[in-house]
Amino acid sequence: MNDLPRGNMNRLNQRIVLAKVGLDGHDRGIKVVARALRDAGFEVIYPGLWLSPASVVRVVAEEDADWLGISILSGAHLVLVPQVLELLRQQGLHHVRVVVGGTIPEEDVAPLLACGVAKVFGPGSALADIVHYFQGERKHEQNPSSA
Amino acid sequence: MSKTHRPHELPEELLELWQAYVRGERLALSRLLTLAGQRHYKAHFYHLFAQPLPGVSSQVVAITGSPGAGKSTLIGRLIPEIRQRGRKVAVLACDPRSSLTGGALLGDRIRMSIDAEDMGIYIRSLATPPGRQGLAESLDIRIALFERFGFDWILIETVGTGQGDVAVRDLVDCLVLLIQPESGDEIQWEKAGLLEVADFIVVSKGDLPGASRTAEQLQQTLNLPGFPTKPVLVVSAAKGSGLVELLDQLVQQPRRRHHPERRRQRLLLLAQELLAERFQEEADLVENVLREAQRAGWNDWQAAGELISRLARTGCKP
User: Fold this and answer.
1) Shared-domain flag, residues B10 and B158
2) pTM of this structure
3) Does A144 score more than 80 pLDDT?
4) Is the dihedral of CA A105, A118, B36, B142 positive or negative?
5) Domain count across chain B
6) Terminus of chain A with fewer CB atoms < 10 Å: N or C?
């Protein structure tokens, strides 16, 4: 599928879908991240718990999100994340960058990055680091030359 | 090709998206919904929609009510009812945007769980800036985008409104006001505002004990002899009761959007939006006046007077 044009990307309020995928009912962490990103000026869409990869990708498509943040604390990240990435590709959502957070063991980071994840925030990640990451990327996008 | 439609004036990317959208591509719809909110694209949409599209007319319903009244939940329950009747439904779910940071947390989808495969549904969350009577930017364009895409129903969830946010009425066919049980006494219902402009009053959480009493009070207050009657319904999302009745009543509503008075109000609304944007462009003006006020020791009233006279000079007459 050909990529549709994005239009002017210089919008201040980038949209981030934060999602819980699969059978994982722990949403404390994702809610804290959602609040922090809201306070950093992002539009955060939180669609709730227990979403299938197909549902998550549907939300990303309907919301025209720039980012997808997936939180997984069930240990199923190596199964679910590649599924989500594949569905994003199938639907022509190549521009959506995916960030994964949760209980990701050190040795799983490289495989996730290899299959197309932009960044992994494992256990012990500081909230400020997550916010800085998104802010940095936003700034870079709005001002590519200054980076 | 008609005179009003001049594709060569359109930015190339917008034209390409529009063509994909006309072919029925959902991703193009998604992106156009985004671009509709951006100032420099907005005017182009009025060009694009200038060509009439025969035979397409959605039923546009706004659902309003105080935060926690049950707006998302009601919409979440209406979606499957509408789908069961073989109709397509789009939802614009509005939540507030922070006046401090510009950020927003859009969480209405949580209560609208849908079948991931069902393409007869489309939900879009919108951040709504403060101080616009609870209206998201370019709501008119976004409604039109859904209508032309072929959605039979367009449901708009407003931000949890206060009492005065009535502007959405002019953009829709029908305004439903959701009231939760035990949320006011008789005199509350006499006040001017939402109750006055709503076409439907729905008491939510009908499974709670106070629901029928609230509905009765509303009935008595609203339907006085000599006044036009207003339907009061009780629904319960928990029990699933009242939903079929509500939908049946909504189906019968006339398409009030096409009423000349609504048309007039919509143009006025657009004018207000454009003026507000013009003013945004003059934001430097405020900064300059502030700086001078600081330097010259003006009080608030002097600063305000200076701002007004400068605005008048730029053509933004208050």
Assistant:
1) no
2) 0.88
3) no
4) negative
5) 3
6) C
